[in-house]
Amino acid sequence: MNLRLKAYLESEIDALKIKGIFRLPRVLETAAGPRVRMDGRDIIQLSSNNYLGLTRHPKVVAAARRAVEEFGAGPGAVRSIAGTMSLHLELEKRLARFKATESALVFQSGYTANVGVVSTLMQEGDLIVSDELNHASIIDGCRLCKAQRSIYRHLDYGHLREILKAARQKGAGKILVVADGVFSMDGDVSDLKAIRALCREFDAIPMVDDAHATGVLGADGRGSVDHFGLKDDWDIQIGTMSKAFGVMGGYVCCPRLLVDFYIHKARPFLFSSSHPPAVIAACSAAIEVMETEPEWHARLWDNTRFFKEGLKRLGFNTGNSMTPITPVIVGSGSRAARFSDELFDAGVFAQGIYFPMVAEEKSRLRTIVMATHTRRDLEEALDAFARVGRNLGVI
Ligand SMILES: *Cc1c(COP(=O)(O)O)cnc(C)c1O
To answer: Which of ligand 1's atoms lies nearest the C-alpha of 183?
Structure first.
C-alpha cells in the first residue's frame, strides 16, 4: 500500500478509536424483524426502518419469488436503453395512485432519487433552500449542481420566509424549497402547510423527502403530503422503498411533465442500471399490503405510543419526536456508544448515533418500533433501557 495513504488512513481510524466510536457493523444472521439473531445473540431489534414488518410479509416475499421465476435475476440494462420492464411501469402506476399524483418514477434508491431529482432540475442562477437537518442525500444533490444554496434553521419558517423574500428581491430564477417530511434522527415533522404557503407567496417549488413518512404518516401511510391534506398541491414527493416498504429503491411522485424531463436527463436514471425484477415486484406487493391491510399501520402507532410513553416515564430525554422514531439523547458520542453496547448485552439493539450524523453533544440512541413488535418485546426493551440508563447515570 502507498505509505502516504497508509499513514492517512491510520490517523483517520485512530481518531475514531480515540473518540470511542470505532465500530464495525453488527451482523444480522436471520431475516430482518422484531426479534433477530445478531452477532450470535438473540435480540429485540429497535434499529431497523422496517416499520410495518414487510421485509418478510408472505405476500411481499411471494411476489419476489414469482418475479424471479418469470422475469429472471436482472434487467440487463439501464432503464433508458433496454432495462425498463413492464414490472417497473406497474410499480410506478401503483406509486402514483398511492400518493395521489399524476405520475411517478423509480430510482435505484432514495439516495439516488434525491441526487438525481435535485441536481438535474436546478441550474446556475437558481436557488435551493433546505432545512438544516435535511438528509445527506439532499445535500449531495445540492452539491452536484451549480444552483446556490441557503439553509434555513430547523423547522424555522420565519427564517425560511426571510430567505425567500430576499431571494425574490434579488431576482433568483427557480427556487426549490426542500425538507424531510419526518427527520430521520429526531422523528419530528416538517410543517408542509407552512412551506406550501411560503412557496405560493414567493413562487417557489415545494419538495419533500418522505423516506421516513411513507408507511407512517397519512391515511394508510400515504405520507406527509396526505397527512397535511395537500394532495393536489405539492410538486415533488421523494420516497424510499427501503424503509416501510421493507424492500429497496427510491422514487419521485410528481406531475408527468417532470417524469418526462427526468427520463431524459437524470444521470442516475441514464447511467446506472435498474432494479432486479424481484425487487420491483416486492415493492408493488408492499404497496398492495399497505392499501389492503391497514392493521399494520394501526399497530405501528399503538406500539409507538406505548414505547414513547414508557421511555418518557423512565425519565429519558426523547426530544421532540412525533413519530415512531424516538431518540434517546444521552450526551457525548462515547456515552452513546457505551449505552448501545450495554443495551446489546442486555438483549436489545438500539444503534448509537454520533457526529457527523448529529451534533456531538446530542449523541443518542435511536429507537424505531415496528408494527410487529409484541407488547412483551417492548416491555422487555423498556426494562433493559431502565437498567442500563440507571447504571450509566443517564436517568
Ligand atoms: C434513508 C433516507 C434516504 C435514503 O434512502 P435509501 O433508499 O436508503 O437510499 C433518503 N432520504 C431520507 C430522509 C432518508 O431517511
So the answer is: 13
Residue 373 among the catalytic residues:
no
57 in catalytic set: no
pLDDT digits (tens, 9 = 90+) for 122-176: 999 999 999 999 999 999 999 999 999 999 999 999 999 999 999 999 999 999 9
Quote the longest CA-to-CA distance of the chain. 61
Sign of the alpha-carbon torsion through 336, 337, 341, 342: negative
Tell me if 111 CB under 6 Å of ligand 1: yes
Residue closest by Cα to atom 6 of ligand 1: 110
Residue 65 in domain: yes
Decide if pLDDT at 192 tops 80: yes
| Whether residues 97 and 188 fall in one domain | yes
> Angle, to 10 degrees, between the axis of helix 256-265 and the axis of helix 110-121?
90
On whether the pTM is more than 0.70, the answer is: yes
184 classed as catalytic? yes
Instruction: Please tell me whether residues 287 and 160 are part of one structural domain.
Output: yes
> 99, 212, 227, 275: which one is catalytic?
212
Ligand 1 pocket residue status of 340, Cβ below 6 Å = no
Q: Is 48 in the pocket of ligand 1 (CB under 6 A)?
A: no
116 lines ligand 1 (CB under 6 A): no
Q: Report pLDDT digits (tens) over 67-85.
A: 999 999 999 999 999 999 9
Q: What is the total count of domains within the chain?
A: 2
CATH number, domain containing residue 128: 3.40.640.10
Quick one: 41 and 157 in the same domain?
no
Beta strands, E only, the chain? 35-38, 41-45, 103-107, 127-131, 148-152, 175-180, 205-209, 236-240, 250-254, 325-331, 348-349, 352-353, 363-368
Span 289-301, pLDDT tens digits: 999 999 999 999 9
Q: How many whole angstroms from 211 Cα to the centroid of ligand 1?
A: 5
> Can you tell me the distance from the alpha carbon of 9 to that of 72, in angstroms, rounded to the nearest whole number?
41
Judge whether 212 lies within some domain. yes
Task: State if residue 210 touches ligand 1 by the CB under 6 angstroms criterion.
Answer: no
Letter for the amino acid at 164? L
Q: Are residues 338 and 281 in the same domain?
A: no
Residue 110 CA to ligand 1 centre (angstroms): 5
What pLDDT sits at residue 21? 80
